[in-house]
């Protein structure tokens, strides 16, 4: 390859990264505005207890999903042949098979889950969420190619269109049912909209395909992602279980509202780091000095830009909750502050994990997630007596442990 061609490829890649970052920031800002309008309206139509039921019911689906996450998307991004139709078809087929298994497990566990949470209303709600995995897996295989090719413009256009549809669906669900079912039904309808739009935007016709060699390649890389996902669920979501089980559905509702308020920040971090930085660094997996140079730039930006923004967000959190929501939801302010701190630590830790994933070393992320889980257990034991605020603080402490663990690992493997 000539120097001119290499320079052109580098400029093209940087251009895609810049456009992707612009789309992420713009789309997330628009989506946050939509979600803010939705939450302000819905909180006036439903009680905190309804939010608590809906968010707790969905936790079972999230748990089973993460316990069956085989890292197929990450493997498609990292593998040198991941963009070929052969690999995309096998990945799509594996994801669809997996989704039916996930749904079956959700249905089976719905009853025991409701009993364990001491609220029988959760059983039917949890069973309804079993409709979500097949819908999510049925989307066009072109979405996998978008991730690999840094097409954040297409990814965010789809997400934004779904959120535009979600707003009237949420309001209609709340008005028609007046309870937690409205939230769950709206979520199912929104995912159905996503499936249809994905084929409009990426009309590649999916083909059922299975090749053992391809599947083994995808799952070999993904086995560490699978373990990290299972551990990550307990490390990141166990607080919501504790709040719902020990503090009641009203507390779970306000806690869930705080989580929803931080969702846009998590969305930006997830897409900029996992959806943009990871595939970008994967392009340089055989050019280790280039990875080190780019990681220094990323961390400098996160530290210099993210630290003051996180501090301002923590200070503003109580005033934002007071401005937007009535007295029934004021309990969200304290947990919200600690969740912002946790997200800041998580951003730094996830950034440090990106070069490890890009160079084929996902096991370090798995180890850091295991440390995070242990740290949450210890922190929750001491801080849980402070209620929802204590559990949120435990999440922040465990995320700091995750960050420190990854900070001890070299960005690139030794030659």
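Sequence proposed for the structure above (415 residues):
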């Amino acid at each position: 390859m000539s120097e001119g061609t290499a320079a052109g490829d580098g400029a093209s890649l940087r251009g895609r990264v810049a456009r992707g970052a612009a789309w992420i920031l713009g789309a997330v800002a628009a989506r946050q505005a939509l979600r803010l309008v939705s939450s302000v309206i819905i909180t006036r139509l439903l009680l905190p207890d309804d939010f608590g039921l809906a968010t707790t019911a969905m936790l079972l689906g999230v748990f089973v999903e993460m316990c069956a996450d085989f890292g197929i998307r990450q493997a498609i991004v990292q593998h040198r042949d991941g963009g070929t139709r052969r690999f995309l078809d096998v990945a799509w087929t594996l994801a669809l098979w997996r989704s039916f298994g996930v749904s079956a497990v959700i249905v089976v566990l719905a009853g025991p889950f409701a009993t364990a949470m001491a609220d029988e209303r959760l059983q039917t709600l949890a069973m309804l969420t079993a409709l979500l995995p097949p819908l999510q897996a049925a989307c066009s295989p072109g979405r996998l190619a978008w991730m690999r090719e840094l097409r954040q413009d297409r990814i965010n256009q789809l997400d934004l269109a779904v959120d535009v549809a979600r707003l009237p669906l949420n309001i209609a669900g709340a008005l028609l049912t007046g309870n937690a079912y409205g939230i769950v039904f709206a979520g199912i309808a929104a995912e159905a909209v996503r499936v249809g739009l994905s084929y409009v935007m990426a009309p590649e016709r999916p083909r059922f395909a299975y090749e053992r060699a391809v599947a083994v390649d995808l799952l070999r890389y993904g086995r560490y992602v699978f373990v990290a996902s299972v551990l990550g669920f307990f490390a990141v979501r166990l607080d919501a279980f504790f709040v719902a089980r020990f503090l009641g559905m009203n507390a779970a509702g306000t806690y869930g509202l705080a989580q929803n308020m931080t969702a846009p920040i998590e969305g930006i971090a997830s897409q900029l780091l996992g959806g943009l930085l990871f595939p970008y660094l994967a392009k340089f997996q055989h050019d280790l000095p280039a990875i080190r140079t780019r990681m220094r730039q990323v961390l400098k930006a996160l530290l210099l830009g993210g630290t003051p923004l996180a501090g301002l967000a923590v200070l503003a959190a109580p005033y934002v909750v007071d401005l937007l929501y009535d007295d029934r939801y004021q309990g969200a302010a304290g947990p919200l502050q600690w969740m912002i701190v946790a997200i800041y630590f998580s951003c730094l830790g996830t950034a440090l994990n990106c070069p490890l994933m890009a160079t084929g070393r996902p096991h370090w992320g798995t180890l850091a997630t295991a440390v995070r889980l242990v740290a949450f257990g210890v922190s929750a034991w001491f801080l849980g007596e402070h209620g929802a605020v204590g559990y949120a603080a435990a999440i922040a402490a465990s995320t700091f442990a995750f960050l420190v663990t990854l900070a001890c690992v070299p960005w690139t493997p030794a030659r």
